[in-house]
Amino acid sequence: MSAANKKTTGAGAGQGASGNGGAGAPDGFEFSSENTAEISRILERYPADHCESAVMPILDLAQRQMGGWLSQAAMDRVAGILGMAPIRVYEVATFYTMFNLEPVGRHHLQVCTTTPCWLRGSDDITATCKRLLGISFGETTPDGEFTLGEVECLGACVNAPMIKINDDYYEDLDPASLEAVINQIKRGEKPRFGSQTSRKGAAPANGLTSLTSEHFKPTMLPAIKLLKRKQKKT
Description:
Layout: H1 33-43, H2 55-65, H3 72-82, H4 86-95, E1 107-112, H5 115-119, H6 122-133, E2 139-140, E3 146-151, E4 163-165, E5 168-171, H7 175-186, E6 194-195, H8 216-233
Parallel strand pairs: 1-3, 5-6
Antiparallel strand pairs: 1-4, 2-3, 4-5
Helix pairs in contact: 2-3, 3-4, 6-7
């Protein structure tokens, strides 16, 4: 979930709420019956007098129903459900890069170009995306399959450089591994998300550098047994 200083180069980024009401924008919006039920479940998480706190998950629900973007009509509907002034909903939607105010492709590629990713080669990642897709930031391929965007930190700095494609993170990239990911998507396949190297999660790339001695686990056993006994008593 990326926040402030929304870039004008990302798909829908930097657009005011009134900027997406042009030709082709839907005149109205209603949640599906399934999503209406989901909204009821979401609202149960919040005190009745603070239901506006649900604005982000409900905006996300609206965006998914619309195929990856938010129309002004959808934002107005969310405002109506939560009893908020529409401008307050627009403020949220224009602040976070997770919300798109213009239609995006079926596969939304968001390249992190913040300092850690940049130091680890995000320029090469950006160039690879542009070469393979034939588009620049803020553009969508003619077939509507891919949109390319630029975002601020996505919180995976230890696995830099990385990109987000729809809901999945692809980390520890280089031009070759990114090309493999994109080509898999083009073939209709589902690439393996997460680190694109052999390391597990965010573990050190060259293996463990601490807690490696053979006597470490035995010395921890008494504490683990004590914790388990306490858990049984409670």
